[in-house]
Amino acid sequence: MKFGAASFKRGKINEHYLKLEASYLFSDIAKRVAAFQKAHPGKELIKLGIGDVTRPLPEVCIQAFHRAVDEMAQAATFRGYGPEQGYEFLREKIARHDFQARGAQIGADEIFVSDGAKCDNGNIQEIFATDITVAIPDPVYPVYLDTNVMAGRTGAFVNGRYQGVVYLDATRANGFVPALPGTRADLVYLCFPNNPTGATIGRAQLKQWVDYARENRAILLYDAAYEVFIRDPSLPHTIYEIEGAREVAIEFRSFSKMAGFTGTRCAYSVVPKACTAYTAAGEPQPVHALWHRRHTTKFNGVSYPVQRAAEAVYSPEGGDQCRALADYYLRNAALIRREVTDLGYECIGGENSPYIWVDTRMDSWKFFDRLLEQAHVVCTPGVGFGRCGAGYVRISAFNDHEKVQQALERMRRTLKR
Ligand code: PLP
Hints:
By secondary structure, the chain is of the alpha/beta class. The protein is built from 12 helices and 17 strands. It has a 7-stranded mixed sheet with strand order 2-10-9-8-7-3-6, sandwiched between helices. The chain has a 4-stranded antiparallel sheet with strand order 13-14-17-16. Strands 1-15 form a two-stranded parallel ribbon. α2 packs antiparallel against α9, α10 runs parallel beside α12 and α11 crosses α12. 44% of the residues are buried. The structure holds pyridoxal-5'-phosphate.
């Protein structure tokens, strides 16, 4: 039966998706790389672009993985659906090692294990109203911005920016740590050590954000996916080291960079029970209950072998192996930083971070093309992360040591000319 045209709107879409910028940074890069390779089939490219790891999983994780797969092969030890929030054995170790050991009062029941910090960062916004104001850094890991566009929290994309968003500029002038906005925001995204700039935040600066959130009834969404690279003892590893953060902050962590899990998938979010947002009528509402509801309704848990592999990270050998893994990339980062500086470019990052943010003194894409065509090295144009990234490129330390050395030699030859 055919119903009237007025009452039947076929395939009506979420039109907020149409506001998204037409092209995605990494697909633009992929297109230029593919065109180069087609034109120069014999030339070997070295990729210091996308932030994916290259080294194998730590040995303890592999062993735990194998043992868990064997358990799944026996009726007596087989496991079906697990708890959506994650197995207690993993949540308990996360709470103890990543938080309590640092003096941060986080309990196992405040941890939500997931299959990625990307999903968590993207999904979290849906427990908040659509008419709130979001503050988002520029340059930025694009997930924070795009998921808010999709949800309808922004206006159109005009002159390189979405209307209605409070942009937090990270520039040379502020050491790439955004200043507090001169206006109220309900949700504030922060990421330290930062992707793409590699900047870190000190305790005093982070405290200012916590105070801002407390004074303005805002919630901080703190992405600490690169925490494993922190070596400077003065830097906070978690926002919950800061007094008062439990009431206003949600933190995101990932095993991707911590233990090479980008292809294995395991992460977690931390939502303290004291963290409070408000209804339109001003009634306080614990965010934990909302996220718990969302997580258990829409997610069915990370696989048992993956959670066992993640648990192994917290054994003494696991700790050593993860540290060695991060040190491997940090050694690359230090080399890149030194070489780029020697070549006369200003940069930040590369210390406590796998990313080096280089001021190219020219258009980001022009510099990208120059490195691609003359050095056969792929980097990431900073402008793809936001307007404040114009003139910068991000160089990633995620590659094998020999490849990084080779890339740096090629860059030296090209950029010294
Ligand atoms: N957060 C930041 C800042 C990232 O750069 C990335 C990945 O590059 C992620 C989150 C995604 O982490 P996951 O692999 O756990 O989804």
